[in-house]
Amino acid sequence: MHHKSERTEEERHNVMVEDVAVTSFFKRHVKHMPATIKLHAELSEDKDYVFLESKVPGHREEDIHISATPNTIEVDLVLEKIAEEEIKFHNSYFTPAPIDPKTLEIHHKDGVLKVKAKKR
After folding, report:
1. What is the Cα–Cα distance from 16 to 104, expressed in whole angstroms?
2. SS3 at position 68
3. For residue range 45-80, what is the model confidence (pLDDT) as tens digits?
4. pTM of structure
5. 33 exposed, middle or buried (CB, 10 Å; 0-12, 13-18, 19+)?
6. What b-and-e string marks burial along 80-96, b requiring 16 or more CB atoms within 10 Å of the CB?
7. Annotated domain spans of the chain
8. Is residue 119 a contact partner of residue 97, using CB atoms and an 8 Å limit?
9. Partner of 2 for a Cys bridge, out of 6, 62, 99, 111, CB 3.0 to 4.6 A?
10. CA-based end-to-end distance of the chain
11. What CATH number does domain 4-118 carry, 3.90.1150.10, 2.60.40.790, 3.90.226.10, 3.40.930.10?
């Protein structure tokens, strides 16, 4: 996988992410390999907006947290809750154009996450 600075513009728009999530099972059984999470997100834009779409089957709306900076849309998925601690997957997706983070519109239906943000 390329480092973020080495990604082409097209790669930044179609990001395949693999990250390691250490769940309570792996905390108890350290000899096992950690789970690998893959979250494919497609970014697109039109004249006024930037869009992110990703399949997140099996995740409830309350377990998906979205935030943004002027250049990224950030996705946190709660994988497991242990007492008051949440085990999360996190990734930031570079936007094709600067956005206004205060304009995020987030929709989650039938395992599909859609995020829309107004361009600056």
Report:
1. 22
2. strand
3. 999 999 999 999 888 999 999 999 999 999 999 888
4. 0.69
5. exposed
6. eeeeeeebebebbbbbb
7. 4-118
8. yes
9. 6
10. 30
11. 2.60.40.790
39 CB-near residues (< 8 Å, 6+ apart): 17, 19, 54, 56, 75, 77, 89, 91
Residue bearing tokens 């399949």: 55
- Residues counted in the chain: 120
Tell me the one-letter amino acid at 108.
Answer: H
Alpha carbons 88 and 39: distance in angstroms, whole number:
13
